[in-house]
Structure formats: C-alpha cells, structure tokens
Design a protein that fits this description.
mainly alpha; Growth Hormone, Chain: A; 2 domains; 1% strand; globular
C-alpha cells in the first residue's frame, strides 16, 4: 500500500503556486467542524441538570470528546499510506450530526457514545486535513497553516454563541437542525477537492513505520520542549486569563471580553506569522513569538488600566502565531511521513496541554494568579534553546528546488 499523494489533476507536476481557494475551503470546513466541537462546554450545565450527573461524570464527557486525539499518530500513519480523503470530507458532517444529537440523547451512555464518535471524526480531520492544506499551499506552507488555524479559532469562537442562542430561541429540541451546516461543509469540501486525486508513489519511495520513527527522532526532543514551554503561557493566557484579570481588579467587561480580544488578535497573528515564516524562516519567526509573547504577559501583570487592551492584542498576536509555524516545521521536517508527524504533534499537544493546565491551576492555588502568570512567562522564555534546535531556520528563496508531489502527503 502506498503513501497518500494529493496531486492536482490539471497540473500533476510541481506545485509551486498556492491554490488559495482550496486552502480557504479546507479552513472553512475546519471552522464549521470546530463550531460543533465547541458545543459541549456550554451544554454541560444542561446535561448535569437533565441527566442528574455528578461533576465527575460531566468531566468524563470532555474526555470522551477529546480522548480520541490520542489516535492521531495512528490515523496520520494511515493517511501517509492510504487515501483518507473521503474520511476527511465526511468529518464535518459526522461531527455535526453527533454534536447536534447530544441534545436529545436519552441517557448518559448514548451521550458518551455520540461524543466519542465526534472525537474520532475530529481526530481524522486534524491529523490529515492540515497535510492536504499544506500540499495545496505549495511553497507557502506557513501561509496555508495560518489559514488552517484561523478556521479552528473562528469555529471555537462561534460554537458556544450558536448553541446557546439556539437553546434560548427554540430549546434543546432545535439543536439537531444545526447539523445541516456540517453536512453543507462536507459537501463544499467534496466539491472543492473533486480534482485532487491520489497518485501512488514509486516503489522505491515506499516507507514503513520504522523509517517514520527514525525520520522523526531528531525532531521529537525540540518539538516536545517547544510545545511544553509554550503550553505554560497558553494555559495561563487562554484558560485562566479572565480569572486573573477579575482577581486583579479589572472591570467585568475587560475580564469577560479578554478571551475574545486575545483570540481575535491571534487569528490575525496566525495569518501573518505563517506567511512571514515562509519568507524569513520558521525558526526566526518562532523565536519572535517566544520573545514577544512572554514580554506581553509580563506587561499584562505589571500594567493596569487602558494599557491592558493593547497588551492583550499583542499577546494574542504574538502568542497564537506560533501554532501554524510549528505545524509547518513538523510537516517539512518529515516530508515522507507528513500526516504521521502532524498526528504525533497534535497528540503531544493534547497530552502536554492537559497536564500543564492542571499544573498551572495548582500553582495558582499555591502562589496566586499574579505570580503564576510571571512564572509561565519566564518558563516560555526558557523554551528559546528548543526553538533554536527546531528545524526551519532558513528563509525560502526562488532558487530552492520546487516541492514535488512526492514530497507532500
């Protein structure tokens, strides 16, 4: 069985110019998919009341949805060797159906099963679709990953608003109708990717999982270091930011709107950071993020008043711009196993982030939220040696060899 090759039928030669319309369509499907994935947190209080759930049982529902992320390395490996395009296309529809039907689930077991189904569909999409978007981005891989990330951020922003508004207007019984949007996203994705086909690789290009592990070995240590150190800053700034601001005397409006400001600036940062990394190099642009974002977090701690608005914009822009850069570096570092490498990165991010959030919360209980934010900023700065160790230091030029279909999954 050969590695998946996504080749555009009209031009099956070297792909240099990004196919922006297809990349944007994949990002839009990502946005639609993550809109439905974001239904669970605002619905948890409803499930607790409706099904008389304990808090532990409610927390386990989140595990049912996010736990399948651990399957992403396996899914990625399959994506390198078989055509999972149909599974990617169906992912938004499957997740939309599962997450829309949770509102009418008759019991806890059915509810958990629906969430697992949505989680598996999400794992497929997030392991393979970024690689397809990267292939269609040609030389501008960071540019494509920037669009991919913006789609996810937009979906996570819209999801809670959509589901809460639906409940307020028509009740829980109206939520199943929302699945139509996910089905439309899958149809649009199928239409956009209809002329993208799988081309089997030459026999001498076939790889096995052992070669994938060997190829990834030089990447793993710096990748784990970068993800771990950055997770402290991201856990503080995305999970505990409203709590910190409120405890520090900020007004209710700023505390409540802080995440929206952060995420909005982060979407712009993702587009700019990914594109800039195509020109200046991954490592240099990532270093900018690792230097500026902690400085912004320290500024957030030590300044007050109107200063905090611009600082939140700077923190979101510089902090969230790192994700598409890391994703591009991961795919470029293991060109023969891009989907596997992306799956490993996504699974690592999930595990590390889950552990770090607990650590940050425990540290805040021990030393207070203010000093915890300072510690998270300093830990992020300590990640700079891992940034230097990451691949992708040089900028791309027109003299570089073109990316061939055999280099992309």
């Amino acid at each position: 069985m050969g590695r998946t090759e996504f080749v555009n039928t009209p031009n099956s030669g070297q792909l240099q110019t990004p196919q922006t319309s297809k990349v944007v369509t994949i990002a839009a499907a990502h946005a639609a998919h993550d809109t439905y994935s974001a239904f669970l947190p605002p619905l948890l209080p409803v499930f607790i009341e409706k099904l008389s759930l304990a808090r532990a049982e409610a927390g386990l529902l989140t595990v049912c949805l996010q736990g399948p992320s651990l399957l992403q390395p396996l899914i990625g490996h399959l994506g390198d060797r078989a055509d999972l395009r149909l599974a990617v296309i169906l992912s938004p529809a499957v997740t939309a159906a599962c997450m829309s039907l949770v509102s009418v689930a008759p019991g806890y077991a059915v509810l958990a099963l629906l969430l697992v189904g949505a989680g598996v569909a999400a794992a497929v999409l997030h392991a393979v679709a970024p690689v397809v978007a990267g292939r269609l981005s040609g030389r501008r891989l960071g540019y494509g990953m920037g669009f991919w990330m913006v789609g996810g951020e937009l979906g996570r922003t819209l999801g809670p608003v959509l589901v809460v508004s639906t409940v307020a207007l028509v009740g829980l019984e109206g939520i199943p109708w929302l699945m139509i949007g996910g089905m439309a996203a899958s149809a649009l994705l199928a239409l956009s990717l209809r002329d993208v086909r799988r081309e089997p690789p030459r026999r001498d290009e076939r790889r096995h999982v052992s070669s994938a592990v060997r190829a990834m070995r030089p990447l793993l240590v710096p990748l784990v270091g970068v993800v771990t150190m950055r997770s402290f800053m991201m856990a503080a700034s995305t999970t505990f930011l409203p709590v910190f601001l409120r405890e520090d005397g900020a007004g209710l409006w700023l505390a409540g709107a802080s995440l929206s400001i952060l995420e909005g600036a982060g979407m712009f940062g993702a587009l700019v950071g990914g594109s800039v990394s195509d020109v200046l190099g991954r490592r240099r642009t990532l270093a900018f993020s690792f230097l500026v974002a902690p400085a912004m977090m320290l500024g957030l701690v030590h300044l007050s008043g109107w200063w905090r608005g611009p600082i939140l914009v700077g923190l979101g822009f510089s902090g969230l711009m790192a994700t598409p850069i890391i994703m591009a570096s991961v795919q470029e570092s293991v060109p023969e196993h891009r989907a596997l490498a992306n799956g490993v990165y996504m699974a690592l991010s999930f595990v590390i982030r889950s552990i770090v959030v607990v650590l940050v919360g425990g540290t805040a209980d021990w030393m207070g939220m203010r000093w915890t934010f300072v510690a998270c900023a300093l830990l992020t700065l300590l990640g700079m040696p891992f940034v230097v160790w990451m691949p992708g230091g040089g900028a791309r030029t027109s003299r570089e060899p073109a990316v061939t279909p055999g280099d992309q999954s």
